[in-house]
Amino acid sequence: MLRRTLLALLPLIGTALSQSASNYIDPDNGFQFTGVTDAETQVTYGVTFPPLATSGAQSTEFIGEVVAPVAAKWVGIALAGAMLQDLLLVAWPNAGKIVSSTRIASDYVQPTAYTGAATLTTLPETTVNATHWKWVFRCQGCTSWTSPSGSTGSISVDGSGVLAWAYSSVGVDDPTDPESTFQEHTSFGFFGIDYSQAHTSNYQNYLDGNPGTPTSAPSGPSSTTTTVPTGPTTPAVAYDYIVVGAGPGGIIAADRLSEAGKKVLLLERGGPSTKVTGGTYVPSWAGSTGLTKFDIPGVFESMFTDSNPFWWCKDVTVFAGCLIGGGTSINGALYWYPNSDDFSTAAGWPSSWTNHGPYTAKLKARLPSTDHPSADGKRYLEQTADLVGQLLKGQGYSNITINDNPDYKDHVYGYAAYDFLGGLRGGPVATYLQTALARPNFTLKQYTLVTNVVRNGSTITGVQTNDTSLGPNGIIPLTKNGRVILAAGSLQTPRLLFQSGIGPTDQINLVKGNTDAASRLPPQSDWINLPVGYNAQDNPSINLVFTHPSIDAYDNWADVWTNPPSADVAQYLGSRSGILASASPRLNFWRAYGGSDGVVRYAQGTVRPGAASVNTTLPYNASNIFTITVYLSTGIQSRGRVGIDASLRAKPLVNPWLVDPVDKQVLLQALNDVVSNIKSIQNLTLITPDVHQTIEEYVDAYDPATMNSNHWVSTATIGTSASNAVVDQNTKVFNTNNLFIVDASIIPHLPVGNPHGALMSAAEQAAAKILALAGGP
């Protein structure tokens, strides 16, 4: 059979929220287990052990069960809470039976068969029906193991520890083969367990097929979430700077701080992305190169259609990347050098920030832009650029190289500019992170979830994580005068602040309502009331879909991940050239509009072959479609709010799109202007909306959820007063002594283009200001 590319299973302690095990009785077989039910996947995991020995060695076996809906195509349990070096039990249903195996991995590769003494036996209580499958099993010789590298691991049956689970909605490659390969899990998590309470005097009865004498326990396991596992701890290493989040802001700040000789720890809740970071999610056609989905620009569109999208944060309700590089590892990589308006006082920046030139120059020196990303210097699939360029010329636009004059953003168009390097995704991962990693005073930890900062009044003393190997109870301390920098992004940084007792009272009270998170809140007298989550902005964006016989839609990018054209594959793998060396956008344009309120707003357009969706009554050739996405950027007045819900998911609370009526007027004008001279180009047809719907009707009916551009800013905005801002001119959180923020949440107003160029310049400037601020380490 055709075998898919094998993926490295991520370590299982990491991005998911953990749980605490509790005792329950399976209502079908009467067995008492200690375990959990995961709230997201609705899979139950339970274990039970023989009675503790009063003398001599303890038993080396246990009985376990997994109860899963049929949507669970395979499930795994790691017996000490991490993938590497741990015994892994994997199972899936096939033809009414359960197929299972023991595995182990010594590196981030496909786990191999475990050849040690562990023996799995499926017990008769196992069932498979139309809605669920239940695997009840005996695992003998499973409380200790030796990995292929020679390291050993074990379960402390009379102590406490961590169990981890992996879940996949994608089936294994050969369900008849217990040693089948499989793709990376689609969800995972872990739970703390007190093994000393997971023993039963009825153990032999269970093996004989009867429940014995029942004990008092609930009929189902706990699904209460918590974020700090129980388990062994080690002495903590203290750091001068702890940076939370390895997105663009965090990577650049960490690089510059370590360059200055500071001892820096960079924490990322997700795992690797590109090949150089250890990523292994490689398309089958690029297997020999090791280049991943996050390396190859041309597979960008598949980020949103892949059946195994492990890179998205599961506890954020909008798109957010949980992996090394954050958004810069998964976005379209459009890269615009900031202009003078982007850092102006009119945009909300303190006056000390307006001279962005030296910091943007530093950024450009490390990461130059290109509008011809193919390594051979040529441009490919440019029919949309040629056609829309002709349309815009008829509207008085000028054709320029956009990043040659960042301040020229009215009636201009040009080829899309990227931060790709040599036909590969570049960004801060390929540049700043690599120089940081070369320094002995820099440490990167992946799969480390920070839930809150630990503080004593206004002073931060460390961060709370899910990894007890980094410090007692997962707490990582600061050195004397040390500092914490939050760089988790515009939705997750606010959540970290709420969980640290910083922000509006209504949000902190939601944290207080979560039993586990509440235990880590400071006293209410130490809560800091700041407008965290308010003032949120994101570009409202509307897609117009056209058709023209000259356009090559590249099969709407449908097969770029699985089976792109062989000639394009050969060209790209041979020289990093051709269509696959670029993401889908081909042209960008800007126009300034004076609103009826006297405010100048900018409209930006992005042109690409293909379309995310088509809604039309007109006949059309799908091979000839293309999209113009029109955004509003600098000057928009609409604001929203982000926050959390009772389950602590980060989410928009008030949508920020077209709240201001003049914003909507200007966007409608911009859309109508784009199509104003469509008849000047023969056979150019607007099909979404089509002739049966006006632009105004189309926008009125537009789903707000699809208006989201995922360019969130200003949720922890910079300013001069705690009454209307969260951080001061040095990016220090008001009313704290040593807590800083360096990510898009501090940007007070949307920049004129896609924000990641402005964000990286801001990170350069923020790092310089933090280092220059007295009182640090």
Automatic annotation (TrEMBL):
Question: Its gene?
Answer: cdh
Q: Could you tell me the EC number(s) of this protein?
A: 1.1.99.18
Annotated region Disordered: the residues are: 207-230
Per the record, the domain of life is: Eukaryota
Which cofactor does the UniProt annotation name?
FAD
InterPro entries (alphabetical): Cellobiose_DH-like_cyt, FAD/NAD-bd_sf, GMC_Oxidoreductase_CD, GMC_OxRdtase_N, GMC_OxRtase_C
Q: Where does the record place the Glucose-methanol-choline oxidoreductase N-terminal domain?
A: 321-344, 489-503
Tell me the leader sequence span: 1-18
| Ranges of biased composition (kind: Low complexity) | 211-230
Family the UniProt entry places it in: Belongs to the GMC oxidoreductase family.
Enzyme class comes to oxidoreductase
Q: What are the TM regions of this chain, as residue ranges?
A: none
Which of UniProt's keywords are assigned here?
A: FAD, Flavoprotein, Oxidoreductase, Signal
Name used for this protein in its record: Cellobiose dehydrogenase
